[in-house]
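User: Hey, my collaborator sent me this sequence without any context and asked if I could get a structure. I don't really work with proteins. Can you help?
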Amino acid sequence: MNNNQYVIKSVLQNYIIKAEFGENPVKLNISTGNGIYVGIDVEKYSNCECWIEIEDGWKLNTVLFNGIDVTADIINGIYKIKGLNANATFIVSVEQVIPTEINAVDGNSRMKAWATGDGLLHVEGLEEGNRFEIFNAEGQLITTCISTGLHQQIPLPTRGIYIIRSAQKIVKLSY
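Assistant: No problem. I've predicted the 3D structure and written it out in structure-token form, which is a compact way to encode the shape of the chain:
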């Protein structure tokens, strides 16, 4: 095979040639929640499933597939991808389960937080004026923010694991 061509220079008898062709695989990049992306080659146009298993004390916060929130499409911890035809990214963020007595301080536990590949932290679902903090994996406070009540974007300094904490929820994510 040379330049995607196979040449038979002379045919002295009948030949049966069986050839199978396939497209190059696409890559599914999966964020593992610890600052590392795992790339998996997937046959183009094939179906695949991503299983999500979460440790005790944590629960699912946000799942993004190519930047689109697909959290509501997770069924029994599985997200099904049909006919994957291009490189894709699958990102999962989790939140710490907070005891009910702490959660009662502020009944608004709709906060969602996730990071995108361009280094932006996205936070939404907090009422205006609610404070939230961003910590790195070592527990150092990066910054304190006040919610505008709208979708907010905050640049993260470097790739790594981050903890986003509000009065009612803690979210762990990676960028």
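In plain terms: Confidence is low (pLDDT under 50) at residues 100-107. You can pass these tokens on to your collaborator as they are.
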